[in-house]
Known about the structure:
This protein is mainly β. The chain has helices spanning about 15-20, 70-80, and strands at about 1-5, 30-40, 40-45, 50-55, 60-70, 90-100, 110-120.
Amino acid sequence: MARVFVYGSLKKGQPNYHYILDKNNGKAEFLATATTTQRYPLVIATKYNLPFLLNLSGQGQRVHGELYQVDEKMLKYLDDFECVPTQYQRTVVELEVKEWAGNREEMPPGSITEAFVYSTTTYQPDWLSLPTYDNYNAYGDHGLTFTLRENRH
């Protein structure tokens, strides 16, 4: 089992959350809400308005997301879904746990843990001048409509 931190369209209530729930893709168990201990630029970019985490520690904001425990099948699925290694890379990120799910209390809130995260491998230079977000929401007040994969040409 591996831990994965999701910050974008795979979070609860977001357009791609159903992929995490689909048992055909593997097993995923929601563990906690968490925030990166370091600041990273989380931007919305491309004509499809996709969330991208740039692997530039110290820039941007501390990013809020969800921590999952996944099996090897789901990890492989997520690698494929995120187009590793061409579009995204899977690296380790340090997280501060905000709140554990249910009766789970592995460590007290505020504890530090690590998980895999998917960050973009390449980006356009102008992405560094885009607004950064601490908590992505496809339906947020940014006015940028997320385009589902099946609707991208």
